[in-house]
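> @MW can you paste both from yesterday?
MW: sure, first one:
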Amino acid sequence: MPDRAPQPVDRQLPTEEARDLISLVREIAQREIAPHAAEEEDAGRFPRELFGLLSEAGLLSLPYDSEHGGGDQPYEVYLQALEELAMARLTVGLGVSVHTLACHALAHYGTKEQRAEHLPAMLGGGLLGAYCLSEPSSGSDAASLSTRAVRDGDDWVITGTKAWITHGGIADFYTVMARTGGEGSRGITAFLVPGDAEGLSAAAPERKMGMKGSPTAQLHFDGVRVSGGRRIGEEGQGFAIALSALDSGRLGIAACAIGVAQAALDEAVEYATGRRQFGRPIADFQGLRFMLADMATRIEAGRALYLSAARLRDAGRPFAKQAAMAKLLCTDNAMKVTTDAVQILGGYGYTADFPAERYMREAKVLQIVEGTNQIQRMVIARHLAGPESR
């Protein structure tokens, strides 16, 4: 048996309230999430009732204003709560991140009346959200999306297909980007669509390498009618709204990646200090000690970068470049750390009896979602050298 239990992450938190919040998140993660994670992921079960508990605890609304039921927490605190959830189970951490992303458009671009009408239920009413930008033929090139919204009197009628939608088919509301004008980014508008809207249906969930408990599905909009009061922002502003949301969402993915990496490191340390070969723990061998040291360093570097970007956001300063850097570094580091964890466990790491193989499979998707890491490099380069020549 391992003789070194994982220690909680020593976090730098700005207030006593934040420390209490992280303690609550850890308690919920250890009591309600981690014990069921392996079984439910293997069975492909989404813990919908758990998200009700998270809503009641105020954990689905942390970075939003208290005026409409938010938690009034700075992003640097919200992201560390997200990391703790992802450490216990990525399906939960990523689910909270996606829900937060889905609330962004209305919270930041909605009218006062729209926020008062919808946000309290979205933030603390037990609802679960999803974000709809990608399409079957429009992934990294999001500005070429073809789902169209046509005005019909005071309403809008939406027709098209969205793809790779986390919570697709189970969400209570969807933030949807649809084309209302001509080609390109300036012809896109944002809408808030109820999950039970007539004409809205979901395909069978994708069969994925990892994250099996988190449903990812295409959504079909067959003449879905929404009122004019559910348009978010101005006509043609949707792409700018989408990019604004993604800047913040990428920090969520970065935090989730560090959570998975931390879980993998904890597993590797436990195993290496308990597994004996040649008469001593394998953690005594320099080759493995150096691997553990490198894994821990990658995690600390990633955590420092996402928190630095979050503090820029909290200060109202530009952070898009740093968000792309954090998403890139944290997810690449998570892939490396989880792969090394499997290696440290050897044959056991390749079996489903230990969680290391699940962490490795889950880390992979984080290099892809909310902008592939190739796209992050393009974003960073544009900040450094300007747009590409045409």
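MW: second:
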Amino acid sequence: MNATGMQATALIAEDEPLLAANLKAELRALWPALNIVASVTHGEAAVQQALALRPQLLFLDIRMPGMTGLEAAQAIAEDWPDDGTPLPALVFVTAYDEYALQAFEQAAVDYVLKPVQPARLAQTCTRVQAVLAQRASGGGGAIDAAIDQLRQLLGSSGPTAPAAPTTPGAPLTVIQAAVGNAIHLVPVVDVLYFEAADKYVRVVTLEREYLVRISLRELLPQIDLQRFWQIHRGTVVRSDAIATALRDEAGKVTLTLRGHADRLAVSRLYAQLFKPM
């Protein structure tokens, strides 16, 4: 079977209808056997449909309303079932300049530049087909390879990294949390963990918890990430508040905290943080 006859499934996440239609048309011409099982317009829908339909390939627009393409990829990786089904191959659709594109190339995740050019898309299809063929022939480590790619992207200084604080300087030392008519000044050193909660962040200490009207993405650049470790897309924990990291038979890691009953799940993207010395 030649490459264009390789059967595969794909999902497209692109918020601009004309660009999505153009991408579909070009894919039909270049790869007739590719079955596009869904086309969505925002990151949350991409996550839902990817987990429900389990396509072999994802085309993710980097900039979409709400969740970005990279955040959607992270969510899919964290929630992907542990039943042996490989994570989808990832292709990002981006309008970024050469510097940004280098970040994706170094992370071994392919990209296509807007507006999509047939010759470049043909290269992407060839690359993805080679990956899928390797998986079909028993090539191992598909999930591990995809996780490694995402780790590199999440740790890069590419365009989707959190924006730097507007006022550079020392990390945040106090969280100002409104409780009724009062403003509580919570020392950051007392925080056990931060957890995303819709448009808020839960700030959990030994004594109590607070809700702060800020997103975790906005908060991250303001705290000391040498001391606070991200363990999930929605959770950041103070490293010296961790008592134990428990790994079950399936390889899932759960953290216990010093003096607190909460247990925190570590996503597979961040599980490598917890290894014996």
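> thanks! The first strand starts at residue 8 and ends at 13.
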